[in-house]
Amino acid sequence: YRAGVVVACKRVSHRSAERALERRSRLRRGRGAVVGMSRDSNYDHHITIFSSAGKLYQVEYAIRCAQTASGLTSVAARGKSAVVLVTQKKVPDRLVDPSSVTNIFKVTEKLAVLMTGLPADCRAAVTRLRYEANEFKFQYGYAMPVASLAKRIADISQVYTQKASLRPLAAICILGAVDDERGPQIFKVDPAGHFFPYHATAAGAKESEANNFLEKKVDDLQAYDTDQTIRYAIAALQSVLSADFKSTEIEALVLDGGQRARTLTDREIDAHLNVLAETDLYARALPGTPHSLARSDFFFLFEPEVSREK
Quick check: helix, strand or coil at residue 122? Predict the structure, then answer.
């Protein structure tokens, strides 16, 4: 009897020990998960804290917000003598006056900016751009070059990533102008403070797809005249969004030579859309022409002499 009692006690103690070890392991797992979550989440509480991977999460969040918050895609291209800024136009409410909705702004008479991101942050950035441009002209007596303005606004954006009392503006600026010495110029500035000159660039929800489209004709882009540059930018927007736009669904601004920045009217946009539609139908009707060629290359549009011979 005593031997049986001893065996039973050992079994009970063994089971209790196993349960205790299991409970302890569960607690350790839970604590480890909580600690891991707290470590990852603590890095994005303030903009001045670097993560263990060397990242500033708040800056990355601002760039992602600027790209995806509005749901729009914007395209900018520069040709032989002109800069073209094209973007989608979406009116948020039927009660809103469509003429008050825009993402393309004139900074000076010969310099414009295409904004992508949160509308309020975009307007704040445009106000600062206009202030810096006019302050430069007041001090030095001539218009501020687009490269200097891009560098200035990029420096300000970078300062916003250094102080915990500030936050980056969720807005991507694409500056365009025709410089007296360097000709057509495009600069892109993001919330982190990066700025680079581009032959053509895009921003927004379909940024990567639009850039892939623009890369196909980047070598020939510098020889395009104003009309070809406009149609190429609109074609890029249509291709990545797989949509046939109406004249009221997009907006475009042209900076041509020494002229002032000019916003295209609905009639002008409609004329370019008609040319694109006719070119698309003509390319599809050719025997042996793949359907993707009509949407991706638009070779008849940008090589009119070759298309006439064919």
Answer: helix
Please give the Cα distance from 133 to 299 (Å, whole number). Answer: 39
Residue 297 CB contacts under 8 Å (≥ 6 apart), including other chains: 216, 217
Contact criterion met (CB below 8 Å) for 238 and 230: no
Q: Is the dihedral of CA 55, 59, 63, 69 positive or negative?
A: positive
The Cα 209–Cα 206 span in angstroms is 5
Q: C-alpha angle 77/81/82, rounded to 5°?
A: 40
To which residue do tokens 């050992």 refer? 10
Signed CA dihedral, 247, 252, 255, 260: sign only: positive
In 3D space, the residue among 289, 291, 61, 94 whose CA is nearest the CA of residue 190 turns out to be 61
Question: How far is 122 from 126, CA to CA, in rounded Å?
Answer: 6
Neighbours of 56 (CB within 10 A): 19
Query: What span, in angstroms and rounded, lies between the C-alpha atoms of 46 and 48?
Result: 6
| Per-residue pLDDT, 113 | 97
- 189 and 170 Cβ atoms separated by less than 8 Å: no
Question: Which pairing describes strands 82-88 and 250-256: parallel, antiparallel, or unpaired?
Answer: antiparallel
Extract the residue ranges of the chain whose pLDDT is less than 70: 1-42, 280-310
Q: Is the dihedral of CA 278, 220, 230, 196 positive or negative?
A: positive
Phi-psi domain of 98 (left: phi exceeds 0; alpha: psi -120 through 50; beta: other): alpha
Q: Identify the pLDDT of residue 300.
A: 44
pLDDT at position 170 is 95
In this prediction, residue 6 carries a pLDDT of 41
Q: What is the pTM (predicted TM-score) of this model?
A: 0.78
